[in-house]
Amino acid sequence: MEIIDYLKDSIFRIGEVYAVNGREIIIKVDSNKNLPHVIYKGRLIKNVSVGSFLKIKKGFYNLVAKVESETLKENRIETEYHSKQDSLIRLLIVKIIGYFEKGSYHKGVKEVPLIGNIAYLMDNDEFERIHRFADPEEETIYLGNLMLDENVPIRISIDRLFASHIGIFGNTGSGKSHTLAKIYNELFDKMKNFNNFKRNARFVVFDFNGEYSSTDALCSSKTIYNLGSDSNESNKIPFLIGDLLRLDTLSILSDATEKTQQPFIKRALKLYNSIKNHESPEEIQSHFKNTISKYIKDTLLLKDAQKERNILDLLDQILLSGLNRELQDSSVMDDIEIYNNGSIKLIRSKDGFVTSDNYEEFFCRLKMKSMLDSFRLPENPIQEFLIFLNLRLIIDLVQNKAQNDHIHPVVRRLDSLMNDVPNIFNIGEDNDMFKKSNIVVVNLNVLKTDLKKLIPLIVSMALYRGHKLKAKKNNVYLNIIVDEAHNILSTESKRETESWKDYRLETFEEIIKEGRKFGVFLTLASQRPSDISATIVSQLHNYLIHRLVNNKDIEMIEKAVSYIDKLSLESLPILPVGACILSGLIADLPIVLQVEELPMKQQPKSQTIKLTSSWIGDSKEQDESRANCGIVPGFEFEIDDADKDERYEDL
């Protein structure tokens, strides 16, 4: 047994420590170990090279180092008994990345070697241990193989990977979307038969380009909301009106200014809640009509022509939204006339202008009185709130709390955006979007750009708020998956105001900073990590980084990922399709992983179009097309019609 150990040590020995500069160690390679392979027990073993791992023995410690570069140095030997080869020595520049203790590999620097310590190649068992990202008792998923050695499978601990924020980055066509699909396809396939998984785990995928909305992408048992595709209720997200009618949400929707418009929205919400707090629908209707009647009187007695016209226009919008078809052509201005001094006169009256003394008799004869009597608040909660918004503006104008020019734009913007809400949300008492399945895909593909940014923000914040309440009582898990995350987490967007951008980023920054405490995690995939908030990128726990060629993106990764080494960074621009660098808390050292390809039906719909198939067609069509062009099968030149027969004979 001892002979075998000595034999192994002599064959696996690389050299000895030549210099120590902190973590950076220089190894002097033995002159007989400069070949590409060594032979041990009849097997070829790859010798040390840049990117390889080696072991340095220091007493009872086995330190692990990674080779970052190598160089030659002149060895000044002034004796005639040495060959010219001995005048040069090979030096390896390595960095300590971890150590073995009690048979397990641990990341970090516990010891540094001494000059003269011996460096060895790793055997297969040691090599597999440093590439093992799960304990033997942990549940794992299979992602692929080590790119430099396809015989080394990479299996990842489910607990370590999914109880973390995940970042998947890479240029278009690098395999980023496929990696995201592979990770979650493996997880869902492994957990699909466990009832507790269906009960306690929830996943929502925001799909900007419809890549994961096919039947088998990610998994087959998922709920898909194809927003904006049709009016079918199954394509609308269940949502509570209370999650939408919030000061912060409405302020962002309307791009409201902080000092003027946001206080108005706050007053509108207070009015809405005070009237809606009445128990029965009839009490709500009665209270609303009494309120609006009071301010109609104040309006008709104002003696300010412009303000009266503005208020009556708002009143017209309110009443027409709650009238039956018979009165839809009516207007509050049908039978009154406003004079320049603000006096209001009933057109068909001989009694003169309205005054506080004749108001009751005057009002009973107006068209607006019959309109108000017939008015009913609509059942649609969105339309109902817009009515309260206009009522609040009427009250503020009458009480001189606001100017129409300052507030009306925010009302108009909210009215425009709220018109899109019924096509996206199914507003009601039920907001459980996971009722059919615990895996949900929200397809945003056909929505307008502003809605694509808005919907993930509103839904994520509502899910996060609701989940925090449930997490205190139950051991529940929520994973928010955002593909093309630069669409909603960009810091460089010029299409929006700073306040909207700040709120959008702060919302997701709160989730990524505090969500772990409540079992809420983010998975982000993006082509441009440099576009995403640096705070968000730096707070991610695990990274799968595909090919990146832009210097800004590479610099962002270098700053944000503290576990990545120089060699891995330099390899980013030349990674092949499907290869990625796995780094982060889960990986005790950065590795280059070749992600296994999914079956075609399970792949996301993000493949590059094959132009020749589109332009030329199948093989039969190709042969017919070439024959029509005068091309002989097997020869790729054209033949003129005049010379065709003669040249065929020559051929």
Unreliable stretches: 632-651
Q: How many separate helices?
A: 23
Q: How many extended strands? A: 24
Radius of gyration: 36 Å
| Biggest sheet character | 11 strands, mixed
Query: What best-fitting shape do the alpha-carbon axes yield?
Result: elongated
Overall mean pLDDT: 81
Compute the separation of the termini in Å.
73 Å
Helix content: 25-40%
- Widest sheet: strand order? 11-10-24-23-22-12-21-20-13-19-14
Taken as a percent bin, the fraction of beta residues is 15-25%
Derived from helix and strand composition plus strand pairing, the structural class reads alpha/beta
Provide a concise account of the structure shown.
The protein has 651 residues and is α/β, with parallel strands linked by helices.
